[in-house]
Amino acid sequence: GKESKPRKASMMIMRTGSNRLNMSSDDLGGLGLDFNNTSQNKVADEIAETLRKEEKIRVSGNACAHGLLRDVLDISSTLEEGAAAIVDDSFTRCFNKASLGNWNFNAYLLPFWVLGVLLRYFVLFPLRLAWLLASFVVLNILFALSRLLMPKGALKLRVERKLVQLIAVCWVASWSAVIICHGPKPTPSKGRVWVSNHTSMIDWLVLSQVTPFAAVMQKHPGWLGLVQTFIMDGFGCIYFNRKDAKDRDKVARTIKEYVKNDGRFPLLIFPEGTCVNNQYSTMFKKGAFDLDCAVCPIAVKYNKIFVDAFWSSRQQSFTMHLFELMTSWAVVADVYFLEPQYRREGETSIEFASRVQAMIARKARLKVVPWNGMLKYFKPSPKLCEQKREIFGSAIKKRLKEDKDFPREAVETREGKT
């Protein structure tokens, strides 16, 4: 896909740079705010320096080696890069969208497939779109009126919760979604935070049609940003901007304050910090597990029988993602609300995050991988790639120069021994 080249290049970085990247992400409250231009340049410079040192040590170590030993040492870095390519495969699979198999492969199935396409695109889609626009406009007008006209109190809060839930129901109904819930439904309360695996922006809608959540999410441009600003702001959603490093402390303080004092809507956090394809679970950032409160895990598992609910914002706009969902037969998902978890005595926040991640992965049948999912946003600078080429080229030139004299030395050595 479009992301394969940046990701493969970033695997060269993973070997020496992943620890730095993971450490930087831990300081941001688990929100995925760690990749701004300054940090990218700093990491790239550090990795380039490390690569130069590694190559210098390797070349100097090979200077006195001959024969088989020297050949083995010469290819050691190449083998390491090959291993990195294998690692890259396990990383990129976390962000690959599933391709549904074609079943219109013979004459008697093709008419049914064509009929299905006509029904989905020219009957279901217009009806779903009309339903969504009409219900969304009406409910948001009612929500705005309730905020402006109703006095503060328990009644206003109940009305707002119900309207938010109905808004989510309207969205989910526009996909003909079948959502099966397992376990006790969340209830608003102070001193608790809910965490879930993350597949798409629709995760919030799928969960909020059960219980309305205030979510921690990235601020988006376009019409989606307008919805966030004028509607979702009304029930406590917290936004961040990955490109703005100043947001870090502000968002972290807001989350702590909300969990401690605001119990109107349950607070939902996605610790992965990015959308993953619902087959894997990338590293959970520790910020959500460092709030000194109960953590309530939620596992969401989508069934890909009709459509893949994974959204890659770098490959597809959210509008096209919704179009894909609304032209499918249905979105099918299971939602598991698990028991609240507390930090054990002597347990670090990182260990706590790993334990909760394992619970979610088991329930949603996901494979846990150790990668920081935010690495998919990291693009090595051209300077770093050029530096790697120069290092490799200089090593090849040095070896070719040494090989001019090596056969004669080998023969003389062998004759001397005999």
Model description:
The protein is α/β, with parallel strands linked by helices and 418 residues long. 54% of the residues lie in helices and 10% in strands. It has helices spanning 4-26, 37-62, 67-74, 76-92, 110-149, 154-173, 202-208, 222-230, 247-261, 318-326, 349-364, 382-403, 406-417; strands spanning 178-182, 192-196, 214-218, 238-240, 267-269, 280-281, 294-303, 332-337, 367-368. A 7-stranded mixed β-sheet has the order 1-8-7-2-5-3-4, with helices on both faces. The chain has a two-stranded parallel ribbon with strand order 6-9.
Percentage beta strand = 5-15%
Distance between the termini: 60 Å
Q: In which range does the helix fraction lie? A: 40-55%
Outline the biggest β-sheet.
Answer: 7 strands, mixed
Strand segment count: 9
Tally of contiguous helical segments = 13
Order of helices and strands: HHHHHHEEHEHEHEEEHEHEHH
> Rounded to an integer, what's the Rg over CA atoms?
27 Å
Q: What general form does the structure show?
A: globular
Question: What is the topology, as strand order, of the major beta sheet?
Answer: 1-8-7-2-5-3-4
Low-pLDDT parts are 1-35, 62-66
Structural class: alpha/beta
pLDDT averaged residue by residue? 77
